[in-house]
TrEMBL record:
SUPFAM superfamilies: Aspartate/ornithine carbamoyltransferase (SSF53671). PANTHER family: ASPARTATE CARBAMOYLTRANSFERASE, ORNITHINE CARBAMOYLTRANSFERASE, MITOCHONDRIAL. Pfam families: OTCace, OTCace_N. This is Aspartate carbamoyltransferase. Pathway: Pyrimidine metabolism; UMP biosynthesis via de novo pathway; (S)-dihydroorotate from bicarbonate: step 2/3. The lineage of its organism: Bacteria, Pseudomonadati, Bacteroidota, Flavobacteriia, Flavobacteriales. Catalyzes the condensation of carbamoyl phosphate and aspartate to form carbamoyl aspartate and inorganic phosphate, the committed step in the de novo pyrimidine nucleotide biosynthesis pathway.
């Protein structure tokens, strides 16, 4: 699982079904001795920890890999690092890397690869947990209106989610500072001013401001961002009765979203994190089964 482009509608539905079964209490354990490792070249709390928990729940052997104390620091390439782990007996690697499409240099490796996020490219496992959260709420995607708001240009979540949601039949709208959008890319004529967007959508998906990917030209004052583009208390009041708020986190409280709304009745932000474990159990199971491993 490297991009959402690779995922068919059937595959997404299958992952959502398996993830929901895990959420309902279904348990499965690896029938084989399987070794997995999580290689995070960029920081993570949710993705790394939820993969670790998902792997342990499936009875996989998790082999720690700490980039900061590895031979990456002696200049070893990503390809040689992954080939080394493969030679040592690792069957599956989850990789997060700052470089867009880092996985292209790994196309000759044999172990199962799961993309835990590549630069501003893709975050397909976040997409599955986000779709799971939306499906739990509405039971469908077709006809739903989803608003993605914020740093779309630098967000791998926006890229992956917009593509998958459209594939599943949802209508996707965007909002945020125009200098953070690339003309003619995923926006495709669906930009709405934030005050119009909040009234229109069933799902309001806020994005973190990716300070670490901003040059001088992209910088914006955080206070003015909240007033001009954030989910303020007034904008929340204008949302549809049943509409929900999502955010992949980490959250800049008081910037993308008013502090009081993070844990409000509409918010599914912590539900998304909980679903991350079940979605990643489903993804791990299917990725390993494709390599011939069995679960019971
Ligand atoms: N949503 C997400 O990817 O969070 P982390 O960066 O903490 O993994």
């Amino acid at each position: 699982m490297l991009t959402t482009t690779d995922l068919t509608v059937e595959k997404i539905n299958s992952l959502l079904k398996t993830a929901e079964e895990f959420a309902q209490g279904n348990t499965l354990k690896a029938a084989d001795e399987i070794y997995v490792s999580n290689l995070f070249f960029e920081d993570s709390t949710r993705t790394k920890t939820s993969f670790d928990i998902a792997q342990r729940r499936l009875g996989l052997n998790v082999v720690p890999f700490d980039v900061t104390s590895s031979s990456v620091n002696k200049g070893e390439s990503l390809y040689d690092t992954v080939r080394t782990l493969e030679s040592l007996g690792i069957n599956l690697a989850v990789i997060r890397h700052g470089k867009d499409k880092y996985y292209e240099e790994l196309k000759d490796v044999k172990l199962a690869l799961i993309n835990g996020g590549d630069g501003s490219g893709n975050h397909p496992t976040q997409t599955i947990l986000d779709l799971m959260t939306i499906h739990q709420e509405f039971g469908k995607f077709k006809g739903l209106k989803v608003g993605i708001v914020g740093d779309v240009k630098h967000s791998r979540v926006a890229n992956s989610n917009a593509e998958a949601l459209r594939k599943m039949g949802a209508k996707v709208y965007f909002s945020g500072p125009e200098k953070w959008f690339d003309e003619g890319t995923i926006i495709n004529g669906t930009y709405l001013p934030i005050d119009d967007l909040v009234k229109e959508v069933d799902v309001l998906m806020l994005l973190r401001i990716q300070h670490e990917r901003h040059g001088e030209k992209m910088k914006i004052s955080l206070e003015s961002y909240h007033k001009k583009f954030g989910l303020t208390l007034d904008r929340e009041k204008a949302m549809k009765k049943e509409a929900i708020i999502m955010h992949p986190a980490p959250i800049n409280r008081g910037v993308e979203i008013a502090d009081e709304l993070v844990e409000s009745v509409r918010s599914r932000i912590f539900k998304q994190m909980e679903n991350g474990v079940y979605a990643r159990m489903a993804i791990l199971k299917e990725a390993l089964e494709e390599k011939g491993f069995k679960f019971k």
